[in-house]
Every structure is written in structure tokens, then in C-alpha cells.
Specification:
With 522 residues, this protein is α+β, with helices and mostly antiparallel strands. 20% of the residues lie in helices and 34% in strands. The relative contact order is 0.14.
């Protein structure tokens, strides 16, 4: 085992005496690497340890899925039943939505985080559960027909949590504790819905603030979507137990990572609260987690009997890189990374899927080929002569390299991409886009105004405002990225539609597709 590169990366956390990490690797049930580095509390100089508790964010989803699978095995819940009669917020939709759709991220429901950002609300602004429920109930449309595509949605897991509570007449805290944590001896793991809760041994979460760091926070509560706290040692216990856990007649790992099957007959790469993809040719399942102040990554390599756990108390720690370094150290017989062509055949640049207004940029960063989607950056690796794979994406995505450009392969479908050249049409017509547009789904007004040769956007919602400088990409297409102060990069594509004065706009983000706002009077 060659861990020098990994140890060197962790040494930097200790030297900085700032936020840090806890990392563990399990192979065939034995811990083969464990180390904590950096501070659980910078203010009080408390170091991280393997028993430090972290908010594990979306790693929570696999535990919720396991509890729901147990309830399905007991006949209490049906994964494939129509939920519209059980969940009032879903009754308005004209198509079936099932519990399986919620857990597979194939429901088409808009993501609650996205909705808050799209109505101008800061993640740290307080919002109550009834207000969140009301926002979800206001949605008049879906991103797509349930079961046809994958788009990540925390909203589905919020509804799934409520279903578990309704079916058992127990709070989710009790369901998870009695069904999973107590039987396995996971004493540091529990549901902690609110950021303000005080828990013994819980690390403070931090995020970058210019050249320094600050405490991070958030104003909404979580449940089975992202609400758990745990420690590296407790997750070691979970991974040691995993090979012996079975549900619905199958090993739990296989059941969780069983890929969703779409309406077109193709399979995806996300299962029940768990993704399944490849790393250097090896099958890997697991999940990542991200909240203000915390990041996490859990990877399983079933063929090798290896699990990797990385927990960090900072929004800015690259847990994906640390997990990859750990995997490479533990599995030194793993196939090498596949190098990409040095220039990608001259294909670097900005592209658009015109059918969906999805933007994608192919570029190099520090000599490494990357793709940028939805304001996030992913490295690339060679799959074969005609295809490169987007690494670390929540679902399996490839770029097909064609003589005349690129196409994106995801969810069993191919989406043609057209290269976008810098817009050269001038700015004399910008006044046509000035005005305001309203969305009843968001309860928000989008005001567009001109500042010289730039179109700017102000979002005015019931609990906040946000501002964007927009870049013109095509005659009627603009894009804007979140400014400093957001805990997470965020990009909105805005298409003005209608003749002449444009009577509407369509918003597209990573988790919201073609949300329409109509022009309103001033």
C-alpha cells in the first residue's frame, strides 16, 4: 500500500490548523487506513478524530432507502404504488409518481434547493417546514414524465421521509435508530434536522470567505434527504456490516445500486439513494454529500471488497480527489487512469444542447481535461477511441467525439451538442429584453434591466433577493452565474420566447428544466 501521496495531502490540513477531514479505508472487513487531520473546531483548537461527528449530507439517502426497503419487505409500503392519493402535494399531477421514482431521482419533481435559489432566497435565510411544504405544493409542473429521465431532486427524499413516518406512525429519528443504528452499534449516528441543534462531538462547519474562512450555516431543516450526522468510525461499522445485510431477497449493496430503468428500456446509473458507475474500469457504488460547511464521499468497490470514507468539515474540501487518492493507495493493483488526447482534437469550447438549453464547456484546467456543466467542473477520462467519460458525475455520462463535434450520452439517450461562438450580434437591441416576468410557482418576479451593454437580472422573492450579470450567448439566450456569497456555484440559462416583445422566459438549471415565467406589467 503506497499512501505517501495521501499522507502528504492530509499533512497540509494539520499544518494549516484549519478545518479538516477524517478518512478510512476498509478492505475485506479490516480497516487498512484511517487518519483524521485538521480541526473540528478552529476557534477552540479541537482536532478532528475518527470519532468526530460530521454532517454527512446526502450520504443520508442510502440509510433512508434501506429503511424503506425493509418496510417494503414487510408489506407496509409498495415501492411501485401510485402515491398521488397518499401525498397531497402530488395529487395535482396527471401521471403516476411512485416511491421508487422518488428514491431513484426519476420523479421529475423540482429540487427544493433549486426552488429556493430561483426565488432569490439565500440558503442561510430561515425557512420553516410549513413554508417548504407550501413551496413544493405550489409547483404546477414537473421537469419530465416520471420514470423517463434522471434529475437529482432532494424534494423526492423529503416526500419519501414523510411516507415512512406515515406508514409506521413513528418519527424518522426512531425509524432509523431502531432499524439500523442500534442493531449495528452505530452510536455516533443520528438524525439531526436543524443546523441550530447542539450535539456532543459535532464538528463546526466552515466555508471559504475570500482569503479566510467563516462558519457556514443554513436556514432549512433536513430529514432523509441530508439530515444525518455520523463519524468515520461509525461509517466503518456500516461498511463492515454491508456484505451481510440483505433485503427483499438480495444483498443490500446490490439492491441499493440497482440501476433505474427508464421508459425507453435503457438503464441509468443511479439506484435507490446510491449511484453506480466505474473508477479506472472497476465498478463503484456509493454517494457524495454537500451542505454549507460539510462535504463527504463514500465509495464501495464490491469486486475488491474495498470501501472508502471521506468526511470533511468544509464546503470547499475536494473530497472526490481525496477519495480517489485513498482508493489508489489501497488498491495499488487497480488499472491506471486513461490519459486523454492532449488537445481533444481541437474540440474545446462552449456547447449547447438546443433541445434543452443545456450548456456544457469542454476545457483544460492545469493540464487536465475537464467538462463544466451547471457551474460545476468534472474531470474526463478515456472510455474508448470515440468516447470520453465524465468522472464523478452522479449519473453515468459520456461525450461522444465525432468528426463534426460532440454529443452527450446520458440515461440511454444521445443529445447533440452545437458549438457556441462568442455572440457577435451587438447590443443595440438589449432594450427588447427589459421588463419583468412573474412565476406563481416561485412567487418571484424577475426584473431585467440594461446597464450599458450588459443585461442584468434582479430576482425578487418573498424571502430574499438575488442579482445576476447576464452573458449573451445567442440572440435570445442569456446565462448568469451566482456571485460571491453563495455556498455553491450556480448557473441559470434564460431563454426569451415569443415574438417581438417576448411574452415569456424559460429557465433551465441543473435541476430545473424549462420553468416558464410570463411577462407582467410594472
Amino acid at each position: 500500500m503506497n499512501k505517501s501521496q495521501l499522507d502528504s495531502a492530509l499533512d497540509r490540513f494539520d499544518l494549516a490548523r484549519a478545518h479538516g477531514v477524517a478518512i478510512a479505508a476498509v478492505k475485506d472487513g479490516a480497516v487498512v487506513y484511517s487518519r483524521a487531520a485538521g480541526m473540528a473546531s478552529v476557534e477552540f483548537a479541537v482536532p478532528n478524530s475518527m470519532d468526530t461527528r460530521f454532517r454527512i449530507a446526502s450520504l443520508t439517502k442510502q440509510f433512508l432507502a434501506y429503511a424503506l426497503l425493509q418496510l417494503a419487505e414487510e408489506g407496509v409500503l409498495d415501492l411501485d404504488a401510485d402515491l398521488r392519493s397518499e401525498v397531497p402535494a402530488l395529487a395535482r399531477y396527471q401521471v403516476k409518481i411512485s416511491l421508487r421514482h422518488l428514491l431513484e431521482n426519476t420523479s421529475g419533481l423540482r429540487d427544493i434547493f433549486d426552488l429556493l435559489v430561483l426565488r432569490g432566497q439565500d440558503i442561510e435565510a430561515p425557512i420553516s417546514d410549513p413554508e417548504i411544504d407550501a413551496l413544493l405544493e405550489r409547483q404546477q409542473g414537473l421537469n419530465f414524465t416520471p420514470g423517463s429521465l434522471f434529475v437529482y431532486s432532494n424534494s423526492g427524499f423529503r416526500f419519501a421521509s414523510r411516507l415512512a413516518e406515515k406508514a409506521t406512525s413513528q418519527p424518522l429519528e426512531t425509524i432509523l435508530r431502531t432499524r439500523i443504528f442500534e442493531p449495528l452499534g452505530m452510536t455516533a449516528t443520528e438524525l439531526c434536522r436543524h443546523e441550530s441543534a447542539v450535539l456532543p462531538g459535532l464538528a463546526t462547519g466552515y466555508q471559504a470567505d475570500g482569503d479566510t474562512i467563516r462558519k457556514a450555516g443554513y436556514g432549512l431543516s433536513f430529514n432523509g434527504d441530508a439530515g444525518l450526522v455520523s463519524s468515520a468510525n461509525d461509517l466503518v461499522t456500516w461498511e463492515r456490516a454491508m456484505p451481510g445485510l440483505r433485503v427483499l431477497g438480495s444483498p443490500l449493496e446490490a439492491k441499493l445500486s440497482e440501476a433505474a430503468r427508464y421508459h425507453n428500456g435503457r438503464s441509468g446509473s443511479y439506484g435507490l439513494g446510491t449511484f453506480s458507475t466505474t473508477w479506472r474500469g472497476l465498478r463503484v457504488s456509493g454517494h457524495g454529500g454537500l451542505l454549507p460547511g460539510f462535504t463527504s464521499k463514500l465509495l464501495r468497490f464490491p469486486e475488491k471488497g474495498v470501501s472508502i470514507i471521506v468526511l470533511a468539515n468544509s464546503s470547499d474540501t475536494d473530497v472526490v480527489k481525496l477519495a480517489s487518492l485513498t482508493a489508489a493507495a489501497v488498491m495499488d493493483d487497480a488499472p491506471p487512469e486513461q490519459e486523454l488526447p492532449g488537445d481533444l482534437g481541437g474540440r474545446t469550447g462552449l456547447y449547447i444542447d438546443r433541445d434543452r438549453d443545456e450548456l456544457l464547456e469542454l476545457a483544460f484546467n492545469e493540464g487536465r481535461a475537464v467538462v463544466r456543466m451547471h457551474a460545476m467542473e468534472f474531470p474526463l477520462e478515456t472510455q474508448d477511441e470515440a468516447c470520453v467519460r465524465i468522472k464523478y458525475s452522479a449519473i453515468d455520462r459520456q461525450l461522444a467525439l465525432k468528426d463534426d463535434g460532440l454529443s452527450l450520452l446520458e440515461g440511454g439517450e444521445e443529445h447533440g451538442l452545437s458549438r457556441l461562438s462568442p455572440y457577435a450580434g451587438g447590443h443595440a437591441d438589449l432594450d427588447r429584453f427589459v421588463g419583468q416576468f412573474y412565476s406563481p410557482d416561485l412567487e418571484a418576479t424577475y426584473r431585467f434591466f440594461r446597464d450599458g451593454d450588459t443585461l442584468k437580472l434582479s430576482i425578487e422573492g418573498p424571502a430574499g433577493r438575488a442579482a445576476y450579470n447576464l452573458e449573451r450567448l445567442e440572440q435570445t439566450l442569456f446565462a448568469g452565474c451566482s456571485g460571491q456569497g453563495y455556498w455553491l456555484p450556480y448557473q441559470i440559462a434564460i431563454r426569451f420566447v415569443g415574438e417581438g416583445g417576448f411574452d415569456a422566459i424559460r429557465l433551465t438549471t441543473g435541476r430545473t428544466k424549462s420553468l416558464r415565467l410570463s411577462r407582467s406589467s410594472s
